[in-house]
TrEMBL record:
Residues annotated as domain Cytochrome c: 391-481
Family to which this protein belongs: Belongs to the multicopper oxidase family.
Name of the protein: Copper-containing nitrite reductase
Species of provenance: Dyella ginsengisoli
Gene: nirK
Catalytic activity line of the entry: nitric oxide + Fe(III)-[cytochrome c] + H2O = Fe(II)-[cytochrome c] + nitrite + 2 H(+)
Disordered: annotated span: 26-67
Cofactor remark: Binds 1 Cu(+) ion.
Length: 508
């Protein structure tokens, strides 16, 4: 026997002993004449408060970002949960579709709320339209596989198992059918809250937010239907990192809301499958965090780490109005992979706390609103072969706002001495089409003279843009601000991209 194997076995037997001396004791007390009362339970007790009482209760399940109402029961009950697995195509970003596998039709799956000590009768259904078998592993379950072993369900079938919610906390659930990573990557995760017997402190708003990483064959925001990319998933190189499964699910009209002076509790989960989340709300400090979804309360927290397959409860009181931005503070994920949401707080200013300038535009660019409709219109026209110059200009304008305007400004005027103007630029007007296309593709550095002023700076390559996005942006630029007009096609961009990256030298 190898030393490694021996060590592993020794560790396993220690675990087994620990399990024997732990849970069964609690279960034994269930049979005694006087089961421990709810009030007597401490946060660390497994909450077996005796057999379920009263009529069975059907659990209220909610779709994100909603959370089922608080439980006002003071006795353990039998709670019936019915959850259906549905495989369905939904937009992952504007103009981009993805085939999700879901618990209850949404990503993350339906939020489940029970009370510590409840006996949960779990029904997992797999829609007849499904192509795959699925199961469920609830981290709030004590038992092999967290339920996975008893819930393997073929399309058109239903499984049932029962567990007692012994430990309070907020727990991730997920599918654990092989290949497990793929099922999770396709959106098969959600949260179950096991409330303490005395309930949770009352707040004005409770919301459900869950991060996940997604792996598509095409690039970020590449239009059309995108399949799952196993290689990217194994390499842990996500195309999208998202809150609640879709870009825009917590922005624009979908933003979370609160009023000044209200208390907000976020149940924040991380489905992974790969990344850990540095969860942060720009402009807020978390008054209370129950880190890892457990019972320890931490206060005055800026960013809380949420492991893959973990969750946290985050609370704060809003003080001043504005848009607060939920991000994974591994910040490229927020601005280049979609991990961004908004909490919109309305109400009176309090200049003593904050002088009152909005942060939206600084942080958000085009992302405050799901306003990429022109982009998807152009993508559809492109697919149908009916793309017009006007479609391209419309889409290009939106994309320019998100990509180029931080430097060249929305009006194309640039910033004096720092970023050259694109408006009525004589430099731009005299470029060949290839050189012009090369600027966003390869970037630009060295001396350039624009309208009589010399710039000697660096524009980074915009490698995240697809061929049609570059074509649309340049067509928009050419047809704006007294520039010479014209049209750049996707094929032309593809041709330039395929050439060896001869950086367009500044002297052109
Ligand atoms: Cu599954």
């Amino acid at each position: 026997m190898s030393r490694m194997l021996r060590t592993l076995l020794a560790a396993a037997s220690v675990l087994a002993i620990a399990a024997c001396s732990g849970k069964p004791e609690a279960t034994a007390s269930a049979g005694t004449a006087a089961p421990p009362t709810a009030a007597a339970a401490s946060a660390t007790d497994p909450g077996d408060f005796g057999p379920p009482r009263g009529e069975p209760i059907h659990a209220v399940l909610t779709s994100p970002p909603n959370v089922p109402p608080p439980i006002h029961r003071n006795y353990p009950a039998k709670v019936i949960v019915e959850l259906e697995v549905i495989e369905k195509e939904m937009p992952i970003s504007e103009g981009v579709s993805y085939t999700y596998w879901t618990f209850g039709g949404t990503v993350p799956g339906s939020f489940i709320r029970v009370r510590q000590g409840d006996t949960v009768e779990f029904h997992l259904k797999n829609s007849p339209d499904s192509k795959m078998p699925h199961n469920i592993d609830l981290h709030g379950v004590t038992g092999p596989g967290g339920g996975a072993a008893s819930s393997f369900t073929a399309p058109g079938h239903e499984s049932q198992f029962t567990f007692k919610a012994l430990n309070q906390g907020v727990y991730v659930y997920h599918c654990a059918t092989a290949p497990v990573g793929m099922h999770i990557a396709n959106g098969m995760y959600g949260l179950i809250l096991v409330e303490p017997p005395e309930g949770m402190p009352k707040v004005d708003h409770e919301y459900y937010v869950m991060q996940g990483d997604f792996y598509t064959v095409g690039k970020y925001r590449e239009k059309g239907h995108q399949g799952f990319d196993m290689d990217k998933a194994i390499d842990e190189k996500p195309t999208y990192v998202l809150f609640n499964g879709h870009e825009g699910s917590l922005t624009g009209d979908n933003a979370l809301t609160a009023k000044v002076g209200q208390t907000v509790r976020l149940f924040v989960g991380n489905g992974g499958p790969n990344l850990v989340s540095s969860f942060h709300v720009i402009g807020e400090i978390f008054d209370t965090v129950r880190q890892e979804g457990g019972t320890v309360e931490q206060h005055n927290v800026q960013t809380t780490l949420i492991p893959s397959g973990g969750a946290a409860m985050v609370e704060f009181r809003t003080q001043v109005p504005g848009s607060y931005v939920l991000v994974d503070h591994s910040i490229f994920r927020a601005f280049n992979k979609g991990a961004l949401g908004i909490l919109k707080v309305d109400g009176p200013e309090d200049k003593a706390i904050y002088s009152g300038k909005e942060v939206d535009s600084v942080y958000l660019g085009d992302r405050a609103e799901p306003n990429l409709h022109a982009v998807s219109t152009a993508a559809k026209a492109n697919a149908a072969g009916t793309l017009s110059k006007a479609d391209q200009i419309g889409a290009g304008k939106q994309l320019f706002t998100g990509t180029c305007s931080v430097c060249h400004q929305a009006n194309g005027q640039g910033l004096p001495g720092v970023f050259p103007p694109l408006a009525k630029s004589d430099y731009l007007a005299k470029q060949t089409r290839e050189h012009l296309i090369g600027i966003p593709l390869h970037g630009l550095h060295g001396k350039v003279t624009v309208n009589g002023t010399e710039y000697d700076s660096v524009m980074p390559p915009m490698t995240q843009l697809t061929d049609d996005e570059v074509a649309n942006i340049l067509t928009y630029v050419l047809n704006s601000w007294d520039n010479p007009g014209g049209q750049i096609t996707k094929d032309e961009v593809a041709k330039v991209r395929a050439q060896p990256a001869a950086a367009p030298a500044a002297e052109h």
